[in-house]
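Q: Could you predict the 3D structure of Carbon monoxide dehydrogenase subunit G?
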Amino acid sequence: MHIETPKKTINKSSQEVYNFLIDVKNFEHLMPDNISKFEVISEERFLFALKGMPEIVLQRKEMTPNSKVVLGAASDKLPFTLTANIIELGANESEVVLSFEGEFNAMMAMMIKTPITNFMGTLSENLNKV
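A: Sure. Here are the predicted structure tokens for Carbon monoxide dehydrogenase subunit G:
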């Protein structure tokens, strides 16, 4: 399953956006209002839960300076990645596209597509907080 947000323009350099996204504690600022739990486990791993949903542990999987940050599920039960692609538009302007990639059976995909799409949209909108 692949979900991608529309491009989001941010009035920060690609380096500033990248530095913000590689610090996992900053993801608390991007989370939706219905978050019920957020906990930093280590410098590359955090746990979060939205009301009515199970806890999810994400960890940094890949970092390409100033252009890409990949987070992935720490558990193999629901394997997925969340990627932020950062494109520099100018000295103080960047564009970010978030993409979700996961392997789920058809039933699971049908159940989680809308909540994940909404979650990704909120993360993208909240990138203005960088």
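Q: Anything worth pointing out?
A: The radius of gyration is 14 Å.
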